[in-house]
Amino acid sequence: MIKFALFGAGFIGEIYGNNIAAHPRAELHYVYDVNTPAELLSAAIKAGKPVYCEKPSDLDIERVKAVVQEGIVSKLPILIG
Fold first, then answer.
1. Angular region, 76: left φ>0, alpha ψ -120 to 50, beta rest
2. What is the per-residue pLDDT across 4-32, written as a single tens digit (0 to 9) for each?
3. Which phi-psi region, left, alpha or beta, contains residue 38 (left: φ > 0; alpha: ψ -120 to 50)?
4. C-alpha torsion sign, points 44, 75, 20, 8
5. For the chain, what is the total number of helices (H) and then of strands (E)?
6. CB 81: neighbour CB atoms within 10 A?
7. Domain ranges in the chain?
């Protein structure tokens, strides 16, 4: 069983949430819907979690560059949709 945390429950988040919940080997463990900057992506990387992030990861290009570097160093599977 793979546990998922879904950050963002807008139109696309609802689709992803339903797909995760319908999968027999997946568990939608948490749903967060808050408007926060890309620190969530950085926190997930620091926690050693693989990440799928629906675009944009941030609106500040310097924060985007910083989190990309964190991802490179971590060698975790990270996908920006």
1. beta
2. 999 888 888 899 999 999 999 999 999 88
3. alpha
4. positive
5. 3, 4
6. 9
7. 1-35, 36-81
At the second CATH level, the architecture of 36-81 is 3-Layer(aba) Sandwich (3.40)
Tally Cβ neighbours within 10 Å of residue 53.
19
Backbone φ, ψ for residue 2 (5° rounding) = -105, 125
Q: What is the pLDDT of residue 40?
A: 84
Please state the length of the chain: 81
pLDDT tens by residue, 55-74: 777 888 998 899 999 999 99
